[in-house]
Task: structure prediction
Amino acid sequence: MKRGDLIIIVAALVLGLLLLFLPATPGASLTVISDGGAVGTYPLSQDLELTVGGNTVVISDGAVYMKAADCPGGDCLSARKISRAGESIVCLPNRLVLRIDGKPEDGPDAMTGGVGG
Amino acid sequence: MNEKINIRRTAFLGVMLALALVLSFVEHHLPSPGIPGIKLGLANVVALLLLYRSGLPGALAVNVLRVVLANLLFGSVASMLYGLAGGICAVICMALLYRLPRLSPVGVSAAGGVVHNLTQLVCAAAVTESLAVFAYAPALLVSGTLCGVLTGFCAAGAIRALPNSRNEVKKPK
Result:
């Protein structure tokens, strides 16, 4: 270990932690994007089970998770439930993105905040 | 004479490729945390070792072949493309850094881990045509750094233990 190592390590960790602790806004709606195009937007307040291609998406108690998927990896199945604005679940093999958006009236940041990070 | 060095080098790179494949195989069987893209990157030990002991061409060739073979054996074409993008960018990044006198393999490896994860994030954003995947950026930055440090320590030990193959032209007694 040399001093340069520490600089790299600390810089990367600080950047990561800064991004991690950006204030989180509670989510209001779920946007489903398939193949780069929006399939639809659904309010988190209503429980819902939705099938998009080979994926089954569930909204339950204001949180979203992937219930079933026919992709080989199954990474999206093991992903945590998402409920805050900017959070997302991605199923890469099926090119499906589930993204939580905040309320539109949250101010100008609501638009950029939806990008996440 | 020149031919002899090339045989030595080819054999060395072949053994390293086999080692990297075994490490990929071991890693394939480790449980994965909930966030895609977080992984130990065990094969990075071999990439680093080759960078210090054989230079960029050897490290790059072995890493590319390792990703292709590993994904043919127990991956998919999609994960191969992510692996190639991440692997190539990480090795090039580490090649730019490893000659710096103030850096040891640990820091070089940490930078490589971060670059590997960020490259894959950019690829994922391109494939999904959405910036939503960047929500994973903090987790991937932190995990890339920590795993990079870990594999960096392993590689530092291996580099110390292995003689420099470039000066290895001495005839065996």
Chain B has one domain: 2-29+38-167. The longest helix of chain B spans residues 2-28. The two ends of chain B are 17 Å apart (CA to CA).
